[in-house]
Amino acid sequence: MNDKQLQKDILAELDWEPFVNPAHIGVSVDHGVVTLTGHVASFAEKHAAAEAVRRVRGVRALVQDMHVQLTDPLWPDDADIATAAVARLSWRTGIPAEAIKVSVENGGVMLTGQVENHGQREIAAAEVRDIPGVRMVVNALTLRPAVVSPTDVQQRIEAALRRNALIDAGQVAVMVADGVVTLTGTVHSLYEREAAAWAAWSAPGTREVLNELAVAGD
């Protein structure tokens, strides 16, 4: 697929995404590397735009140069954002809210502490991402160590890859050493690449994922 056609497909996907207003988003493509520029009204919209681009076949990498432009003068201040973040984390089941620390500065939210797995880490970030006034989220949560053999971790990840309809598991090689999972091979899209990484992160005993999967060009 050439860059011009890929740009058209991305613009169409952004227009299709109900949580994105593409009017102020610029899209440029260079050999499958997509750069988004312009501004959006919230961090949640910025995230939704990035997810929409990752779904498009032919995208090999994504650079986000968009910024969040808050237009409402009554947006919550940092104290309001921090209060809302703590409340949302406390209400959300399945995550150890008491182990998560929240700090806010100029609309930027940082999460620190330890959680059990990558799923909890991502859920915590998702809970604070769409709070009004949030400009960015820095997810510095770490995972508690788990005693699992490298062979068991590898087998669990390989099984998860085979179950996932989005992933061609035969093209992905998994290596595990001291909790560090390395993925190599070739996938068909950036979305598939990230789905493989998610599968690797979800295995108990994974503490780091080195995603070396290449995205094949059309």
Automatic annotation (TrEMBL):
Residues 2-72, 77-145, 149-217 form the BON domain. Pfam families: BON. Keywords: Signal. PANTHER family: BON DOMAIN-CONTAINING PROTEIN, OUTER MEMBRANE LIPOPROTEIN DOLP. This is Osmotically-inducible protein OsmY. It comes from Nitrospirillum amazonense.
